[in-house]
Amino acid sequence: MATNPILEIENLSLATSAGKSLVTNVNFSLGKGESLGLVGESGSGKSLTLRSILGLLPRGVEQVGGAIRSDVRSAMIFQDPRGALDPLCPVVRQLAEVVYYRQNVSRKASRTIALELLEMLGLPDSLKQKDRYPSQLSGGQCQRIVIAMALACKPGILLCDEPTTALDVTVQKQIIDTITRLQQELGFAMVFVTHNLAIASTMCSTLCVMKEGQIVERGESLSLLQNPQHSYTQMLIHSVLPLPELERGAGV
Ligand SMILES: Nc1ncnc2c1ncn2[C@@H]1O[C@H](COP(=O)(O)OP(=O)(O)OP(=O)(O)O)[C@@H](O)[C@H]1O
């Protein structure tokens, strides 16, 4: 348990409206600036757990038990950046709109803050001069816009739902580095959902392993990966394909 938690999840249980259990008795807490990773196979309940923190459960899924307590604002970054943006609205205008509503500033100030956020996210100046639509940006640039939108909410907790899955590996690394830098600069806490154990252990000090809607193992990231106790965690770790050993001295 985190001391002075800003988020406490106690015995969270989710089910379909028809009564099928999806997440059962999930417990964790998060302190200011801390990062917790939720890992596990597809369908293990990671995204639903994350969405319930934001109160954004999909239609047909209900919280049937437990409690979520938090006294800070949360914002979420979704898996598919293009899907999270309005294709018919220029991106800077979308970002300025979020700033306008979430920061309660004038229209003019919201555009200025939006441009500052673009700079913080390392987006090119060309975006500032000529407003572009999502289809005119790369996947990595769209994800930076989505991250900027989340930060425009000034979150105490950033909820990341596999934010790099839809991106190619080089862009994945850039986005991970950007989120890490921003966390150091802005101090938000993070719940990070991913299939990727390497990313999870890089980003998060604590990992919770989920299987069939339950947390089956948790611990400090490196020790959990080095010394997994649960057979499911061991299986997850062994499912990662090793890089083939390159033959020494082989000509290229
Ligand atoms: N709207 C819904 N109605 C009914 N069942 C749902 C709904 N959304 C998700 N589920 C089910 O809840 C379970 C957990 O889903 P969830 O999306 O949380 O898994 P996940 O671990 O995030 O998977 P992935 O890594 O593939 O995103 C799955 O069995 C899924 O089929």
TrEMBL record:
<keyword id="KW-0472">Membrane</keyword>
<dbReference type="InterPro" id="IPR003439">
    <property type="entry name" value="ABC_transporter-like_ATP-bd"/>
</dbReference>
<dbReference type="GO" id="GO:0005886">
    <property type="term" value="C:plasma membrane"/>
</dbReference>
<keyword id="KW-0067">ATP-binding</keyword>
<dbReference type="GO" id="GO:0016887">
    <property type="term" value="F:ATP hydrolysis activity"/>
</dbReference>
<keyword id="KW-1278">Translocase</keyword>
<dbReference type="InterPro" id="IPR050388">
    <property type="entry name" value="ABC_Ni/Peptide_Import"/>
</dbReference>
<keyword id="KW-0547">Nucleotide-binding</keyword>
<feature type="domain" description="ABC transporter">
    <location>
        <begin position="7"/>
        <end position="237"/>
    </location>
</feature>
<dbReference type="GO" id="GO:0005524">
    <property type="term" value="F:ATP binding"/>
</dbReference>
<keyword id="KW-0813">Transport</keyword>
<keyword id="KW-1003">Cell membrane</keyword>
<dbReference type="InterPro" id="IPR017871">
    <property type="entry name" value="ABC_transporter-like_CS"/>
</dbReference>
<dbReference type="InterPro" id="IPR003593">
    <property type="entry name" value="AAA+_ATPase"/>
</dbReference>
<comment type="similarity">
    <text>Belongs to the ABC transporter superfamily.</text>
</comment>
<keyword id="KW-0997">Cell inner membrane</keyword>
<protein>
    <submittedName>
        <fullName>ABC transporter ATP-binding protein</fullName>
    </submittedName>
</protein>
<dbReference type="Pfam" id="PF00005">
    <property type="entry name" value="ABC_tran"/>
</dbReference>
<dbReference type="InterPro" id="IPR027417">
    <property type="entry name" value="P-loop_NTPase"/>
</dbReference>
